Amino acid sequence: MNLNATLFFQMIVFFVLGWFTMKFVWPPLTKAMDDRRQKIADGLAAAEKGKADLAQAQARINVIEAAAKTENHSRMLEAEKQAAGIIDEARREAEAEKARILAQAKQDAAQEVQRARDGLRADVAVLAVKGAEQILQREVDAQAHAELLDQLKAQL
């Protein structure tokens, strides 16, 4: 075979193969590479967007956390004030109850003293009558002398 013809046919086959590759094989390969490049770029953009969203979310979390701490502090102060108010109210009620109990006890004591005095007056009147009986050596009728005995009780 002729070397020139072989080179010529090989050159023709090479160009046909190059044309076929450029026409049918190369466009899908470049399209696949472009698609892959675009997916990578989209992934990197999504990652950057995710980082930005994370930073914004962290900032919102910090704001919410600070607001929650402030609200919690104010609620604690309010609860302490309310507790102090309840304690003061209980103290006032206890003082009022103490005063009421003391007044009742004083009233009960005064009534008991009055009853004791009345009992002692009656006992003294009875003793006086018995003493008068012994002095007079006769019996004194308590019903007949009731008015006199009442006057005697009033004087005691």
Order of SSEs: HH
Task: Outline the low-pLDDT stretches.
Answer: none
Tell me the overall shape. Answer: rod-shaped
Major beta sheet summary: none
Distance between the termini: 171 Å
What structural category do the secondary elements indicate?
mainly alpha
Q: What is the residue-mean pLDDT, rounded to a whole number?
A: 88
What is the percent of helical residues? over 70%
Number of E-state strands = 0
Structure annotation, total helices: 2
- Strand % is under 5%
Give the C-alpha Rg: 60 Å
Count the domains.
Answer: 1
Structural overview:
92% of the residues lie in helices and 0% in strands. The chain is built from two helices and no strands. The chain is rod-shaped. α1 packs across α2. It has one domain. It has helices at 3-136, 146-155. The chain has 156 residues and is an all-alpha fold. The model has no long low-confidence stretch (mean pLDDT 88).
